[in-house]
Write a structure and sequence with these properties.
- The chain contains nine helices and ten strands.
- The strands form two sheets. It has a six-stranded mixed β-sheet, sandwiched between helices. A four-stranded antiparallel β-sheet has the order 2-1-4-5, covered by helices on one side.
- The structure holds adenosine-5'-diphosphate (ADP) and magnesium ion (MG).
- The site of magnesium ion has 2 residues, from helix 1.
- One of its GO terms (molecular function) is ATP binding.
- This is Amino acid ABC transporter ATP-binding protein.
- Pfam families: ABC_tran.
C-alpha cells in the first residue's frame, strides 16, 4: 500500500478543516479528490507531504509513519512530488535547469546525470525542444508540463496534483491532462484534486468526495458519476454537469 491515512484531523485555530479522514491508496492507484470549494481537498493533499502538520491522526507512506516525530520531513517530500495550480518555475533558470536543480541540490546528482534524466523527462512531456528557453517564453500549458517534469526529476513514488489545470486557458488543459494520463498508465501512484470530470471518470480508479472535511464518498468513477450515494455529491454533480 502506498498511502494509509488514519483518522486525520487538521484545524486552523477554531476552524476544523479535516475531521477524521481514513483511507488507503494502493501502489499504482489513481485517486481523484472532488468536492466543494473549502471542503479541505488542498489541506488533505498538503498533509500527505507534510506541507501542513496534521492536528491528529496518522499518515503512512510506503509503510513508514510520516507523522511520527522521528520522520525526516525532507525525505518524505522528496518521495512525494507535488504539482500546484501555479507552476512556480524558477524564472531566472532555463527549462532544463529548472528540471535539473533539485536532484543536483538535494540529492547530489551529478550535472551530467541530472541533464540526462532531465532531457528524458522533457521528452516525455513533449518539451525537448524548449530545454534552453526561459519559463517566460512558454505558454501556461507548457509551464505546467515543465513543472511536472521537474517534480518527476526527484523520482518520487507518489505524485500529488492540486488543480493542475485550473489556471490554464481551456485549449491548454488537454496537453497537461494527457501528460498526467501517461503518468497514470506508467503505474505512478497519484492523488489528483481536479474539476476535470472527464479526466476523473476516465483515468481515476476511485473518486474520493470530500464534504466539510469528511470523506463523504469513496466510489469507482462509473458508480460515482451515475449513482452518487450521498446527497451532497448528488447536488455537487447536478451543479457542475
Ligand atoms: P479546498 O481545497 O477544498 O477548497 P482548502 O483545504 O484549501 O479547501 O481549505 C479548507 C478550509 O481551510 C477553508 O475554509 C480555508 O479557508 C481554510 N484554510 C486553508 N488553509 C488555511 C490556513 N493556512 N490557515 C487558515 N485557514 C486555512
Ligand atoms: Mg484547494
Amino acid at each position: 500500500m502506498a498511502i494509509k491515512v488514519e483518522d486525520l484531523y487538521k484545524s486552523f485555530g477554531s476552524l476544523n478543516v479535516l475531521q477524521g479522514i481514513s483511507t488507503e491508496i494502493d501502489r499504482g492507484q489513481v485517486v481523484a479528490l472532488i468536492g466543494p470549494s473549502g471542503s479541505g481537498k488542498s489541506t488533505f493533499l498538503r498533509c500527505m507531504n507534510l506541507l501542513e502538520t496534521p492536528t491528529s491522526g496518522k499518515i503512512f507512506i510506503d509503510g513508514v509513519e510520516v507523522t511520527s516525530r522521528k520522520t525526516d520531513i525532507m525525505k518524505v517530500r522528496q518521495n512525494v512530488g507535488m504539482v500546484f495550480q501555479h507552476f512556480n518555475l524558477f524564472p531566472h533558470m532555463t527549462v532544463i535547469k529548472n528540471v535539473m536543480y533539485a536532484p543536483m541540490k538535494v540529492k547530489n546528482t551529478s550535472e551530467e546525470e541530472a541533464r540526462k534524466v532531465g532531457m528524458d523527462l522533457l521528452k516525455k512531456v513533449g518539451l525537448e525542444a524548449k530545454a534552453n528557453v526561459y519559463p517566460a517564453q512558454l505558454s501556461g500549458g507548457q509551464k505546467q508540463r515543465v513543472a511536472i517534469a521537474r517534480s518527476l526529476a526527484m523520482k518520487p513514488d507518489i505524485m500529488l496534483f492540486d488543480e493542475p489545470t485550473s489556471a490554464l486557458d481551456p485549449e491548454m488543459v488537454k496537453e497537461v491532462l494527457d501528460v498526467m494520463q501517461d503518468l497514470a498508465k506508467s503505474g505512478m501512484t497519484m492523488a489528483v484534486v481536479t474539476h476535470e470530470m472527464g479526466f476523473a471518470k476516465e483515468v481515476a480508479d476511485r473518486i474520493l468526495f470530500l464534504d466539510q472535511g469528511k470523506l463523504a464518498e469513496d466510489s469507482p468513477p462509473e458508480l460515482f458519476f451515475s449513482h452518487p450515494k450521498c446527497d451532497r455529491a448528488k447536488q455537487f454533480l447536478d451543479n457542475i454537469l
